[in-house]
Write a structure and sequence with these properties.
Immunoglobulin-like, five-stranded antiparallel beta sheet, four-stranded antiparallel beta sheet, 21 strands
């Protein structure tokens, strides 16, 4: 309940501000000045002097505390050029709001460029809204009026106290403050370095996690095979291993950051959900499986091999670099959600931090591939055909077949083709793993396999595990949830024969079960293509859901999700399925699932122009992906928001977390805050 206490604390501060509490502490003092750029252009300069141990929040604040905001009164004689810029801020964890935020310490300088459209002296007026906090408390948001006069040689500026001063009188204190800030520069830089190191460490952990994803882990043997077949000196092989690792890091760090600046976060969404890359990845996995089964050997194109050989003496490693690029492209469908946040920051103008983050991610990601490539002798001494090495390849071939279906499933769900429903998907998996079990027992033999004269203990154990998994899958054909693999299978609504749903529907009719739909205000838009899990009734359009929430006097549960979101399916299978969660969602909320990757075209009257990247959004997915980014500065899924009718967010939003008790508390807090009129913050 810590966040709730914080919200109540801020509300109390707002109430106390009316009786003069904000007059006791004034940790931020503002000075206003101008700087002449040309005969018609000026910079309006806002300088905030901040007392020790206090800080002022940046303009770039995603959620909870009010950001520093400048509002200008329109003047037909003045043109505002661009937006208000700000000096470099610190980004660290803020204990007041329990999140990472940008703020200023000691001093902050903001500038707004203006252009005079007519001769003479003109006034620029407006207000600056800001909030200041120390490590234990926050003052109420403050609104301060300002007035600038520009247009003649000797300018008169009105300070925050209302006393008229000349430009020289105001600028001098600013310069003094700038000199003083140099003294504190080392402290500020230390804080930034600590923040960047923390971000690097988190990105590094993300890279390690990405290795365990289904489209990355099976690629490791391909790397080993590539370097094993390279009949060169050990030294040259090790050099290639180093080049391979460096290439992976360079591709992610350089190309990833460039793509973020040029295309923004949409590139990650495109690679993860568009049918072209997903079908391509599916085909690649099928080809890999056929190669592991011994149908053919995968070799580099002759022209590429010849080019590489010709440049070998000059240090050319084109083949190695090409392998690194292939790995990055094939695995990006799984790594995209992890690097998505970094891409958003880069697209938003952040440069150093996303580069450091991408470097940390790619460094961890490249480690196992480089190590296997650096020491190919670990496997090169083993027989190329037959033996345990070939058995490992065949087993991985079966896994390639099974995991490759995930890419086809993503494209199928995103575009609503209906060719790989849940029971069809499970049927493929049951057959694949059943055949794998027979292979482990020696009942199936491929061209390069050695004879299995006796069954080894490892083969026996693996076969027991495999057949047990097959038995686990079989009930899924009749609607069993299969929570352990829920993130990798198509959603339940694609299942044609679901005994679970039949029993649930009968129980509703007989006993009025707690998950009985409370009824909707109208037929949900897109209900023919989009569905909610566990029989929940809800919407797939924000405006329609908000209107129903107002009509039923209920808060809104917003689920930012996606067809290709593995973690979304795991949350639905493991958390949403809990009876208490289902009861709260069904009885206390109007539920809306906003699919950020759906390719369904919207009618032209529902197109929107993004305020984030200025592009026209024409599909369901692009519209609601933009909604998530612009309103919450988040592009990862799942992302859950509890909202009132006026845009008030009732409690801190949640992401992927399989703790059921915490999710129940999250939902209960939202209901309680909705009824009591308490909110964490408002969305614009």
């Amino acid at each position: 309940m810590k966040k709730l206490r914080l919200v109540l604390y801020l509300v109390t501060l707002l109430l106390f501000s009316s009786i003069g509490f904000s007059q006791i502490l004034e940790p931020v003092t503002w000075r206003f000045s101008t700087e002449k750029i040309s005969e018609t252009e000026f910079d309006l300069i806002f300088t905030a002097a901040i007392e020790p141990k206090w800080h002022l929040y940046s303009q770039d604040i995603p959620m909870a505390p009010p950001a520093t905001t400048f509002k200008f009164t329109m003047n037909k004689n003045i043109e505002f050029v661009g937006k208000v810029t700000e000096s470099e801020s610190i980004e660290e964890y803020d204990p007041n709001f329990e999140m990472k935020l940008k703020y200023f310490a000691k001093q902050a300088i903001f500038k707004q460029k203006v252009k005079l459209l007519t001769d003479g002296r003109h006034e620029v007026t407006g207000t600056v809204d800001f909030m200041s906090c120390d490590d234990t408390k926050c003052l109420p948001p403050t609104e301060l009026e300002f007035t600038f006069k520009v247009g003649d040689e000797k300018l008169t500026i009105v300070s925050e106290t209302g006393v008229a001063k000349t430009e020289t009188e105001i600028v001098n204190p600013v310069k003094v403050a700038e000199k003083q800030s140099v003294t504190n520069q080392e402290t500020d830089i230390t804080g930034k370095k600590a923040s960047l190191w923390g971000f690097f460490f988190l990105a590094f952990l993300g890279g390690l996690a990405a290795i365990l994803t289904p489209c990355v882990f099976p690629m490791i043997p391909m790397t080993v095979s590539f370097f094993m077949n390279d009949k060169e000196s050990k030294m040259k092989g090790k050099l290639k291993a180093i080049v391979y690792g460096i290439s992976i890091i360079a591709i992610y760090t350089l190309i990833g950051s460039i793509l973020a600046v040029v295309a923004g976060p949409d590139i990650a969404n495109w690679l993860s959900t568009h049918w072209i890359p997903n079908i391509l990845f599916f085909i690649i996995f099928i080809v890999f499986a056929a190669s592991f089964f011994g149908m053919f050997e995968i070799t580099m194109p002759h022209w590429l091999v010849n080019t590489s050989d010709q440049k070998a003496d000059k240090g050319g490693f084109i083949g190695t670099i090409f392998m690194a690029l292939t790995l990055v492209l094939v695995s990006f469908s799984c790594t995209g959600p992890i690097v998505g946040t970094i891409l958003v920051e880069s697209a938003g103008g952040q440069v150093l931090k996303p580069i450091i983050g991408m470097f940390g991610f790619s460094l961890a990601f490249a480690l196992p591939f480089t190590l296997f490539a650096f020491f190919p002798s670990w496997l090169s001494g083993l027989p190329k055909s037959g033996g345990w090495l070939n058995s490992v390849k065949v087993v991985l071939g079966f896994l390639e077949l099974a995991l490759g279906l995930k890419f086809l499933s993503v494209a199928d769900q995103t575009y609503h083709w209906g060719i790989l429903d849940r029971e069809v998907y499970l049927a493929f998996w049951i057959v694949i793993f059943f055949l794998l079990g027979l292979y482990l027992l020696g009942k199936i033999k491929f061209a390069h396999d050695s004879d299995v004269k006796h069954l080894s203990v490892p083969r026996l154990i693996l076969s027991i595990i495999t057949f047990s998994f097959v038995i686990y899958l079989v009930p899924g054909m009749f609607g069993a949830p299969l929570k352990a693999i829920s993130g990798y299978t198509p959603p339940m609504h694609t299942h044609d024969f679901d005994l679970n749903a039949i029993v649930r529907n009968n129980s509703r009719l007989v006993s009025g079960n707690t998950v009985t739909p409370a009824g909707l205000c109208e037929t949900p838009k897109f209900h023919e293509k989009l569905h909610l899990p566990h029989g929940l009734q809800g919407f797939f359009d924000y405006d329609q859901a908000l209107a129903c929430a107002k009509a039923q006097n209920k808060p809104l549960f917003i689920d930012f999700t996606g067809h290709g979101c593995v973690n979304c399916r795991e949350m639905e299978a493991n958390v949403w399925s809990d009876p208490k969660v289902l009861q709260l969602l069904n009885d206390q909320y109007v539920v809306v699932a906003l699919y950020v990757d759906d390719k369904t075209e919207l009618p032209e009257n529902e197109w929107i122009t993004s305020t984030y990247d200025k592009k026209v959004k024409k599909t369901i997915g692009k519209k609601f992906a933009d909604f998530q980014i612009t309103k919450f500065n988040v592009n990862a899924q799942p992302f859950y928001v509890l909202m009132g009718h006026e845009g008030q967010v009732l409690t801190q939003p949640r992401a992927y977390n399989l703790n059921i008790d915490e999710f129940v508390k999250f939902l209960e807090t939202g209901v309680s805050n909705y009824k009591s009129g308490v909110s964490a913050f408002l969305i614009p």
